[in-house]
Design goal:
The complex is a heterodimer of chains A (120) and B (145). Chain A has 120 residues and is of the alpha/beta class. Helix content of chain A is 43%, strand content 24%. Classes of the chains: A alpha/beta (120), B alpha+beta (145).
Chain lengths: 120, 145
């Protein structure tokens, strides 16, 4: 777990796409979720029509509060005429997206490469 | 690992403050009991998620107007064929009937209101007791194929 105040994301910019990975394996703590939301919002606001890819490769657990933050990020990306993709979601977490029907709201890809290829 | 049917139910009552340390200590006690009874990873995921959601509801909604150090009472009982969790906050109570269905198309973009849905999806039963400030959840493992 990163020390308090440190970034909770690993961010990489490639060919106009902002790739984000989580440092925490468990996205459960409300303060951390708030910080993650603020950090991703900063990335979204930094580009005119952001192309954002969020990878869940390291994530074992997430809560409905984390889903709420993703929805807020999605709304913000849409508001800026950008595109959001999710990738590398573990089957157990994939089930959470299915139960909440958020698999209909988000564009989810199995791999980072597939997600990158889907940007228009 | 097979569920040891001869093991006595593992029970505890824990008072939890709204800190990550307290929440993880309670989860650790519960998940340790699940492990002793041979519950699979998927079961531990489900139980942990439901507990997280119930605690978020208790602290965020139940204790909204109470001092920050107000604790939640968490009682669990783990046996080979079920896990019972009882979470009681000190708030005014909650009416689950007032929660909008977050899976409807018109509500998909609303960022809140999914905790109860997840609790119900993963648990065999979710019941609000008393004035609605106590939630009792029961998890039943899937029968082995």
């Amino acid at each position: 777990m990163p020390p308090s105040g440190a970034s909770r994301l690993r961010v990489k910019q490639t060919n106009g796409i902002t790739q984000v990975e989580f440092i925490d394996r468990n996205i459960l703590d409300e303060a951390n979720i708030h910080q993650i939301g603020e950090e991703i919002t900063g990335l979204v606001d930094a580009a005119p029509a952001p192309k954002l890819l969020i990878s869940f490769a390291n994530v074992d657990h997430l809560s409905s509060a984390a889903l709420g933050t993703l929805i807020t990020v999605n709304n913000r990306v849409k508001g800026r005429k950008g595109q959001l993709r999710l990738a590398n979601i573990d089957p157990q977490i994939g089930e959470v997206f299915k139960i909440t029907k958020l698999d209909k709201l988000f564009q989810i890809h199995e791999t980072t490469d597939a997600a990158i290829a889907s940007f228009t | 690992m097979h569920a040891p049917h001869t093991l006595q139910p593992d029970k505890a009552v824990i008072h939890i403050a709204n800190t990550r340390e307290d929440i993880e200590r309670a989860e650790g006690a519960l998940l340790g009991a699940l492990e002793r009874f041979g519950y699979a990873d998927a079961a531990r995921f489900a139980v942990r998620l439901a507990l997280e959601e119930a605690l978020v509801n208790a602290f965020r909604h139940g204790h909204k107007n109470l001092p920050a150090d107000t604790t939640v009472r968490f009682e669990f009982s783990v046996a080979h064929d079920s896990v019972l969790m009882d979470i009681e906050d000190k708030g005014p109570g909650f009416d689950p009937g007032k929660v909008k269905d977050p899976t409807l198309d018109e509500n998909l973009e609303i960022p809140t209101g999914r905790g109860l849905l997840l609790m119900r999806a993963y648990m065999a039963s979710v019941e609000y007791l008393g004035k609605g400030n106590r939630v009792r959840m029961v998890f039943k493992p899937k029968p082995k194929a």
